[in-house]
Amino acid sequence: MKKTTKLASGVLGLIGLAGLSPAAFAQQSNVTLYGLMDLGLAHTSNKASAPTAQAPNPAGSSSTELRSGSSLTSRFGLRGTEDLGGGLSAIFNLESGIWADTGEIQGGFFQRQSWVGLRSASFGQVTAGRQLPVISDILISSTQAPYLGNATATIDGAATAGASARFNNMVGTRVDNAVKYSTPSLSGFKVHAMLAFGEVAGSNSAGRVLSLGGSYASDSIEGGLAYHETECKTAGGCAPGSAKDKIFGVGGSYKLAGARYGMVYTRQENAKNIAGMDADVLTLFARVPLGPQWIVMGGLQFQNDRSPANQDVHQVNLGANYLLSKRTFLYALYSHQKVKSGGKAGMYSVWSDRDNQNQFSTGIVHTF
């Protein structure tokens, strides 16, 4: 009994030295396993083989394949909170992408999200790790796949195989080594900031990423604006032909009777730190429910290539979902892409040997 009492006293003493009360170890916590699986068939026209030394411009033809993630990225993850008392909570998120057709992990475990932080109703939220930048947090609600009609074909500046592969406006792209803060909501308004460390020896600025913005959300309106910049990754500063990558984005959507209508615009200079690699992307979209089970959606996208290549991209995305339950739906998606000035089309990292490409996919999504 004495040993037990002494041990308990010692533990309480250590807790006291740490500045914590015994009650801090008895707060409520929870961890959730979540995810979704998206698998279906995809048919793509004008598909070329990857270039090789023997065939730098390979001829293409149509292909049909079993594909993971045509509507939404297949994934699984863990997220959790712990109530620390006084309105403060510890939070974390770990998330991995999955190729549902092969069972492989996309790019390594937890490459989609890997962060930990603190949340307070009074002071806001701060997180650190691999996470989406502010420009994505603010605009992704308007540009996520269900509203555009096709995740695998959207022109948001991400790495499609054709002309738009030169650009990346960071909508949906994650950043390593990032610390991010958002204020509490004040009548629907929030301020957001993120700094990602380049971690380049001999330089505090090389590779550094800065993302700032403001957002507004209500029952019917959602939107905001953001600025994002990426420094050159060399310790000596930007080399000739390189420059700081700068992006400005603005977007919003209006919700009415279950439908959503909106637009997103981004303007980028020196994409991927290549001087003069400039582009604008405008997206218009709509998502409309038809009865209790059907949802139709579509998007028009215009990429104005302001680089010397001047290879503009126009695209139409259409889609329909049939809801089997709150967690499962069937989908059908169609996209058509056209590239100007001799550029080659490309969707979902599918190369083309022509200036246009069509893609049709159908499948099932189940969330858990």
CATH architecture term: Beta Barrel
The poorly predicted ranges are 1-24, 157-164
CATH class: Mainly Beta
Number of strands: 20
Shape estimate: globular
Q: What is the N-to-C succession of helices and strands?
A: HEEEEEEEHHEEEEEEEEEEEEE
Structural class: mainly beta
Helix content: under 10%
Write down the overall mean pLDDT: 85
Please report the number of helical segments: 3
Output the CATH topology: Porin
Strand arrangement, major sheet: 1-3-4-6-7-8-9-10-11-12-13-14-15-16-17-20
Count of separate structural domains: 1
Share of residues in strands? over 45%
| Biggest β-sheet strands, sense, barrel | 16 strands, antiparallel, barrel
CATH superfamily: Porin
**CA-CA gap between termini:** 49 Å
Mind telling me the C-alpha Rg? 23 Å
Oligomer: single chain
Give me a quick take on this structure.
The chain has 368 residues and is mainly beta. It contains three helices and 20 strands. 8% of the residues lie in helices and 52% in strands.
Describe the structure using short key phrases:
368 residues, 20 strands, mainly beta, single chain, globular, Porin, two-stranded antiparallel ribbon, 16-stranded antiparallel β-barrel
Give structural notes.
The structure is a single chain. This protein is mainly beta and 368 residues long. It has one domain (25-367): Porin, CATH 2.40.160.10. It is 8% helix and 52% strand. It has helices spanning 2-17, 134-143, 145-148; strands spanning 29-48, 60-68, 75-85, 88-99, 104-106, 113-120, 124-131, 175-182, 189-196, 209-217, 221-230, 245-256, 259-269, 279-290, 294-305, 313-323, 328-339, 346-347, 350-351, 356-367. The strands form 2 sheets. The protein has a 16-stranded antiparallel beta barrel with strand order 1-3-4-6-7-8-9-10-11-12-13-14-15-16-17-20. A two-stranded antiparallel ribbon has the order 18-19. The longest helix is centred in the first third of the chain and has 16 residues, at 2-17. It starts with a helix and ends with a strand. 36% of the residues are buried.
